[in-house]
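Re: duplicated header lines in exported structure tokens

Our pipeline writes sequence and tokens for each protein into one text file. With two proteins the header for the second block appears twice in some exports. Here is an export where it did not happen, for reference. First protein block:
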Amino acid sequence: MRVDGRRSDQLRPVSFTTDYTIFAEGSVLVNFDRTRVLCTATLEKGAPRWMQAQGRPGGWITAEYAMLPRATQERTPRETNGLGGRTQEIRRLVGRSLRAAFNLSLLGERTCIVDCDVLQADGGTRTAAITGGYVALAQAIYKLVETGEISQQVYLPPVAAVSVGVLEGEALLDLCYAEDSRAEVDFNVVMNAAGKFIEVQGTAEGQPFSRSMLDELLALAYRGIGELLQAQREALGKLGTYLPIH
């Protein structure tokens, strides 16, 4: 048994509280058990200047990521003098992942900004940010679909993410911090509902791992992401019923 009593192939309890804030076009509080991330989506008119300069049609999706000082067991200072390398890496990962879930050419000249603020961190904050960020952004864009401003075809297969790793020789799904901090192998996997990979981040923290272990980890991630995609659809209600799968 794991530190929290789960099976090796079991996700932590996951929940989405949609419309968590009143001002953002889309918002959700996503809980991966004790990891909690507030994701809000903002839609702004106008594409980024670099797109305009290139004459590139459509819109853009970008993301920001931050961790509150007491999201962790000990206070982490705010990044007031520039973003750290980890923060920059995560915000780029979230942005890349979310762009894979929408047809940017059909967004119109808009910039979609997804803010992912970690309220409490117990492992897997980047995967929670991606999974929750999709829900917030899907909500925000749906309002434009409902008014006929953009086509429903803007939606590509939904995206979710999960961590997997190896601890004491055993492959585990959705690591909490106590497991992640001791893992021999650590992976973050992003996939869509068509079963295609968007990003795979993985490393051996100690000894190299085998191809068979890699296959086992990817199979675990595939299973976990399938469950997360279903949870997203349920959280999105009527919107979830017409999101494409293939």
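Second protein block, exported in the same file:
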Amino acid sequence: MFTRSFPLFSIFGFRISIDLSWFVLAALIVWSLATDLFPEYLPERSAQTYYVMGTVAALGMFASIVFHELAHSLVARVYDIKIAGITLFIFGGVAELEDEPPTPKSEFLVAIAGPISSVVLGGALYLIAMLLETGSPPEVLAVLSYLTVINIVLAVFNLIPAFPLDGGRMLRAALWWRQGDLRKATRLASLMGAALGIALMIFGAYNAFDGALVGGMWQILIGYFVFNAAGQARRQTEIVARLQGVSVAQLMRALPPHAPGGLPVAALEGGTVTADQSAVAALRQLLRGPQPEALVVADGKAVGVISARDIFTFLNRQAALRNAASVQRDPGRA
């Protein structure tokens, strides 16, 4: 999902990180607010004023996203669900749950906490704007109005019953509670998510061809993200369900034989190497064995793995170097 993220700070014990892709979204938001929304709302201001307003509004938007994800994280902590952290990225933000919620109730409450927090924050910003309406600069009121709307939109969009949106997780919780089968509930909720993603991509393509190129492309990207995330969630749940009761011993490969670091290469085939037996012949025998590799051990610790293929590559390289040196000594042989 992420390209490369950097930690910013911690709050309530949760690490807040920012992904490089976030800067793309931030730049787009500042640009669109400074060149479109705010000039229409407050005409006849300087370009500098609009860009300052756009920057403050963008920072407020991402603070709102962190607030939304913190609500998820704090409720998850109540149910002992581990959270790796919160990451801001090109499509907003995400609380990185390390575990699946243990019950339908915990899933539902963790999911609904986000939209509730956004509605509460939007209401608080609206009240602040009302209190500051008299005597405050119109630029401040414009930014507060934008953040109020953004939080309400964030809540409403996330309530769409399509996984992995919050509404989709609430739907999965309800299906899980009714059917008693997390795997089947995830499959149905993910299908809703995939359908939403396809619908957004089609809608975005229509808007792009209709003249709203930037908005349309953005809708296509969001649709693709939702579609892809729904598929990943479904596959992850399927894998976890199929691995129930499977031990690590059933999946792991047995360790290869170990070889001390000072052991002659010719001895790696495991048998006695006579004086007239070449290293290459011994390695060919090793390659035909059931485990054509060996651990290299030094001071009682495994320091690497060596295989017959590695040694053949080394021998071929050595032969090539010898041939090159021979040609340099006797150019007539080339």
